[in-house]
Design goal:
Elements: H1 2-25, E1 28-35, E2 40-46, E3 51-56, E4 64-70, E5 76-85, H2 94-103, E6 111-119, E7 130-140, E8 143-155, E9 161-170, E10 180-181, E11 186-187, E12 191-202
Antiparallel strand pairs: 1-4, 1-12, 2-3, 2-12, 4-5, 5-6, 6-7, 7-8, 8-9, 9-12, 10-11
């Protein structure tokens, strides 16, 4: 009877260890995406007179994003960061470009950072755009803020992944004062829409 109990306990322990090892080996599924130089970012806003759009037309870095799903809790992590030079902004008007760069404190903080944190679900990556959300940290002018971003993600026939993210935010979120011109007669509104289009390939 004693040996039978020992045998049962041993089999139970082996089953638990085997189950644990199986779960650990399949705990995460990770994919890596290489960000292309064809990626871009735009900042769209308005004044009391008209609208404006400032863009960074291309991305001059080589960065990688990693997307992984934890099979134990279903959490989808999107990790990685892109860095964008404030000096690269082009507002299609030299005066407006200089004013925006001054407002964003380009001399003190020359780089805008977007750090990716998570996704609401694992994307299917088909030619049909899929709409999901995710969390990012944006570091601008020395201030770090977390936002939920709306994404549109798809993959074209050349296997290029298109991740388009958009978010409304305010100058005041980063303790910045909106630009003014002509003695305050032209005032930029506090709200901006930031949109980035990342073009990536799986590696």
């Amino acid at each position: 009877m004693r040996y039978r109990n020992i045998l049962l306990i041993t089999l139970l322990l082996l089953s638990i260890v085997g189950f644990s090892m199986k779960n650990n080996t399949k705990r995460e599924e990770t994919k890596r995406w290489l960000v292309s130089q064809n990626s871009s970012l735009s900042v769209n806003g308005s004044t009391n007179i008209n609208k404006f759009s400032c863009i960074i037309p291309s991305y001059d870095q080589i960065d990688t994003l990693a997307v992984s799903k934890n099979n134990n809790d279903g959490v989808v992590m999107l990790s990685g960061m892109i860095s964008l030079s404030i000096n690269s902004f082009d507002c299609h008007n030299s005066g407006m470009t200089k004013q925006l760069q001054k407002t964003l404190k380009e001399k003190e903080f020359p780089v805008l950072f977007i750090r990716f944190l998570s996704l609401s679900k694992l994307p299917e990556l088909t030619t049909k755009p899929e709409f999901i959300t995710g969390l990012v940290n944006i570091n601008l002018a020395g201030v770090n803020k977390r936002f939920e971003v709306n994404y549109q993600i798809s993959q074209d026939a050349q296997k290029v992944i298109h991740l388009i993210g958009s978010r409304d935010l305010n100058f005041s979120d980063f303790k910045l004062i909106p630009p003014r011109k002509l003695g305050g007669m032209i005032q930029t509104k506090d709200q901006l829409t930031v949109e980035f289009h990342l073009k990536m390939k799986t590696i």
